[in-house]
Amino acid sequence: MVAEVYVPPINYDMARLGAPNIFRDTFGHMTDDQWLETLQASVTTPVIEGVVFPAFPDPDLQSRIHGSSGTQAVFEAFDFYLFVRERLGGSLRLSPDTRLLDFGCGYGRMLRPYMRHLDLVNIYGYEPSPVFSKIARSLNAYVSILSGEFLPNRRIPRDSFDLIIGYSVFSHLSPHSAALWLTEVAQVLRPGGHAVFTTWGQRFLTHLANEKALADAG
After folding, report:
1. CA-closest candidate to residue 138, choices 82, 191, 61
2. pLDDT for 67-101, tens place per residue?
3. Can you give the pTM of this predicted structure?
4. How far apart are CA 180 and CA 175, in angstroms?
């Protein structure tokens, strides 16, 4: 379910809307802390400095997708965004023409911190769930959401992206599916591109093994 959000009438500045990135033009001067505060404020204030921000789905749906909602969900997305920037360092500069793909984007929260860096036409999400892809499109008209299948089927253009991110996606894939998708990612990246994914570490795998042992023991 998509939350009902009231957006007060505003006088649209067509010149600003027609620019490659209204977020960069309006918020590009901000520090990281200020940009995070602005994104978190957009949870309850959809229009900031005359810019309509992407909306959010119902908090219950957010929690069912990734275990958090609202400002906490925004913070987690921003924390991963900072991780990507810091780990890549100078090897990838987030310039306007950098092309970004969020693999398994859900409703699109991981894309939002990048919206003040890249030209909006260069921001994409890939979501195999038809329900989540429809929700993502309904919430954020500034970016492009690609639909596809749960196994690679060449739906994503080859040699197209400089940066591919994936937050807690591979944790849900079988070894066979993960191997297929990693091959797909390699084909989708441009030469010299980067892919950054998160997954559960060995501690979580040990926890699952212990839980199974307890279950087997009754």
Report:
1. 61
2. 899 999 999 999 999 999 988 876 567 889 999 99
3. 0.84
4. 9
